[in-house]
Amino acid sequence: MARTQLTLAALATSAVPGLDVAYARKHSAGAHGLFDSALVIDKDGRALIIRVPTSQSAETEQSADLVALRALTTGNRSRLPFDVPEYVGQTPIQGTRAIVYELLAGDSYDADALTGHEGVSGSIGRAIAAIHSLPSAFIGTAGLPQQSAEQCRKDAIDLIDRTANTGYLPAALLRRWEQATDDEALWQFAPAVVHGSMSADSILITDDAVSGILGWSGLAVGDPARDLHWLLAARGDAAELAITAYVDARQGSDSHITQRAMLYAELELARWLLHGSSSHDQSIVDDAVAMLDGLVDTVHSHTQQPLSPETGPIMTVGDVENMLDHMPRAARDYDQHAAMHTDSYNFSGLTADSESDSDSDSDDAEDDADADSTDGSANDSVDNSVDDSVGTTRGFSAPDQAASRSASE
């Protein structure tokens, strides 16, 4: 049973000494999310978010987020053109912890809206580039994951192999993805600091610019293309500008980043299939198979924008929109990571199935939780957020996070 706002407000007063609550309200749209959360305002007008995980997966994510935010020291934050969540306090509750964060300013929008405005799109590209430009030494010091380009490639190969082993992966896609992972040139890149779970729900906007980024549990050194694939699934008119702004800010240091981002977008369908298979949910399996078959049809019918010189064509805007029109609503409500302002969904199964290293970090997070780490909060405006519809730009883009982000408050 979901905890009431009064219960959460009481927990907040326990977590933050001296907190005098004047107002509290639930900060979730439903009772089955990864977190029970509430917005709490004290008598001085200070706005806070309190969250209590509702599953082991959520607890793991919360712990990883605390470790990551502690690693983002004042020096690291000063290099970023936006705010990062700040941790305020915690208190034990029924075998887990209630965590309190400062509420970050800014509004939350879906991916299409974010990429429909030139100023916002450019700001998003530059914000992601700023994360990728952080010096990477602090990642190792904090004990966060570090992957080489070859390890990123091996992870993609492993995901493809596991998907093929289900018996549901069409031979045409297996061949296409294997050709991409066999392309040496595609994987010649310098690993960078990555957010690790970037999506539209990670981003807060103020005055047509990125004002805050949330949900840092995936912070690592890895393939920067992983933070971009959701942009390829956005249908805003200025989506291309976000990629251009990113490339300009990074000075074109990775000539194949867009192709890898496209590959990761396609592989989200594989993740969705694996989630259905591991959870023994035939409806998810059937949905994933249908989308994979749709991708096969498109690969065979077009000739532009290959993942690599060997892989063949990718989807057009019309193809993806047509696939969206026929996609079951349940599939489009799929999501993986929780931003600080988004607690109204439960995707613990897929999180467990993913390739993240969050489990290995959870023990470290328990040790670090008492430190003056900072963590994410949310913006009140998330109540108006809408689903990130699956889309595309300039060619194929599989549904972002294997269908779309359905975080709503």
The total of beta strands comes to: 9
Structural class, judged by helices and strands? alpha+beta
Shape: globular
The parts where pLDDT drops under 50 for at least 5 residues are 312-318, 328-352, 354-409
Question: What is the C-alpha radius of gyration, as a whole number of Å?
Answer: 20 Å
Largest sheet: 5 strands, antiparallel
The percent range for strand residues is 5-15%
What do the pLDDT scores average to? 80
How many helical stretches?
16
Order of helices and strands: HEEEHHEEHHHHHEEEEHHHHHHHH
Q: Enumerate the strands of the largest sheet in spatial order, edge to edge or round the barrel.
A: 1-2-3-5-4
Percent range of helical residues: 40-55%
Termini separation: 18 Å
Give a structural overview.
By secondary structure, the chain is α+β, with helices and mostly antiparallel strands. The chain is built from 16 helices and 9 strands. Helices cover 42% and strands 12% of the residues. The strands form 3 sheets. It has a 5-stranded antiparallel β-sheet with strand order 1-2-3-5-4. A two-stranded antiparallel sheet has the order 6-9. Strand 1 (21-26) and strand 2 (35-42) form a beta hairpin. Mean pLDDT is 80; it is low at 312-318, 328-352 and 354-409.
